Amino acid sequence: MIIAAVGDIHSPRFLPLFLKALSEVSVKPDLFILLGDIVEKNNIEALTPVYKAVKERFEGVPLLGVFGNEEFRGFEKEYLVKYPGITWLNDELRVVGLDGLEVCVVGTRGALDKPTPWQERNIPGIRDYYMSLPERINGLLKECRRVKAHLTILASHYGVTYSNLRGEKPSVYPYLASEKMSEVIKPELVDLVLHAHAHNAVLEYTMVNNVPVYNASLPGRGRILVIDVKHRRSVLHWLSKPR
Fold first, then answer.
1. What is this structure's pTM?
2. Per-residue b/e over 6-40, b at no fewer than 16 CB within 10 Å?
3. What per-residue confidence (pLDDT) applies to 243?
4. What is the pLDDT of residues 8-52, one digit of tens each?
5. Residue whose C-alpha is closest to residue 56's, from 85, 80, 96
6. Whole-angstrom Cα distance, residue 96 to residue 107?
7. CB distance 220 to 240 below 8 Å
8. Cα–Cα distance between 183 and 166 in angstroms, integer?
């Protein structure tokens, strides 16, 4: 099983880099995941070239997406209506059948340890939302196990640990990730975690409680992350490399 993932395209800002990176993926993935901040400043139309490029390059491949902070809250329905070919996950899960296996994907914007000053001023209740989200995500991951999915993926825009933020200023770590979210990353609940948002973080992946966590931020990686998943029940081998 091959999973492709990328976030922080900020179209049109990094669109040329994205199109180049897309052309360099030499294998057809079984699943393609967009990890938020796909557009810049809620420019809904700017998602069109990203959407068309993925659909043309990988016809028939399921395309999942989560929202980032640049896809503004309150506009989710507009994205759903304009881009129905993307399965949008907004604090929810979807089970996808891939090559005889059922993959359960939990998708979310994610949480931050500290809301940004702008969020504090403009999004009522955002601090409480960030505090309560890990428990909600924990419940969704448990639901994936209840449906006996062969593979469970957590896809978040925001980071889920500080351990892979090296390269960013430590003073901004609380605005990039949630350490509390790392508490729900357990091998009995989730097999793979993907996130974006940390543009300058130099580590591609880290292990949290023996679960691989990948930062698929386009500015940081300079490419689309391609992950080979070789699955044998309860035994996973992960390999990420340029394609």
1. 0.93
2. bbbbbbebbbeebbebbeebeeebbbbbbbbbbbe
3. 34
4. 999 999 999 999 999 999 999 999 999 999 999 999 999 999 999
5. 85
6. 13
7. no
8. 20
Q: In whole angstroms, how far apart are CA 147 and each of 93, 101, 139, 143?
A: 11, 12, 13, 6
- Contact predicate 108/156, CB 8 Å: yes
User: CB of 151 within 8 A of CB of 94?
Assistant: no
92-98 and 101-108 strand pairing: antiparallel
Torsion of CA 195, 201, 206, 211, to 10 degrees: -10
- Do you find a cis peptide bond into 212, omega within 30 degrees of 0? no
CATH number of 2-240: 3.60.21.10
Helix/strand/coil percent split, the chain, to 5: 30, 30, 40
